[in-house]
Amino acid sequence: MRALATAALAIGMGLSFSASAETYAGSGEIIRGDYAAAERLLAAERRLSPDNAEVMLNLAVVYAQTGRSGAARGLYQDVLARPDEELTLANGAFVSSHDLAGEALQRLGDPALASR
After folding, report:
1. Which of 50, 55, 73, 48 minimizes the C-alpha distance to 63?
2. CA dihedral in degrees (35, 41, 45, 48; nearest 10)?
3. What residues does 100 pair with on adjacent strands?
4. How many CB atoms lie within 10 A of CB 15?
5. How many CB atoms are closer than 10 A to CB 51?
6. 102/76 Cα distance (integer angstroms)
7. What are 60-111's pLDDT values in tens digits?
8. Domains of the chain, with CATH numbers?
9. Run of H or E including 27
10. Could you give the 3-state DSSP secondary structure of residue 61?
11. pLDDT at residue 88 in the model
């Protein structure tokens, strides 16, 4: 299980998170709205761990929040193409990486989601 930076949830999904969320994969920067810094951190992490669902989800949030919905969709679809992971939110709740990616795609209006 990985501890998920809840920034992906906090932005647009309405779930609460604890202050400790800022310690995970660029989420402090996302929460503060410093998307450029978050993108730099997450891009570096992705180079080291390209299959990390937490990193992909948070990077997708950065892309969506900076007007790059196509790039965000691609990352969410990458998460769905990999085995589902159980992630732990900073508040201790568990969530599926596939559920997060699917919800985010719905919010982006991805028509391909209906076929999943």
Report:
1. 73
2. 130
3. none
4. 15
5. 12
6. 7
7. 999 999 999 999 999 999 999 999 998 877 677 888 999 999 999 998 885 5
8. 2-111 (1.25.40.10)
9. helix 27-32
10. helix
11. 76
pLDDT tier, 114 (very low <50, low <70, confident <90, very high otherwise):
very low
Q: What are the tens digits of pLDDT across the range 14-50?
A: 433 333 444 466 888 888 889 999 999 999 999 999 9
User: Order of strands across the sheet with 2-4?
Assistant: 2-4, 86-89, 94-96
What's the rounded Cα separation, in Å, for the pair 83 and 88? 16
- pTM exceeds 0.85, yes or no: no
In angstroms, rounded to a whole number, what is the distance separating the alpha carbons of residues 105 and 72? 9
Query: H/E element holding 2?
Result: strand 2-4
Rounded-to-integer distance, Cα 43 and Cα 13, Å: 23
Is residue 94 within a helix (H) or strand (E), and if so which, with residue range? strand 94-96
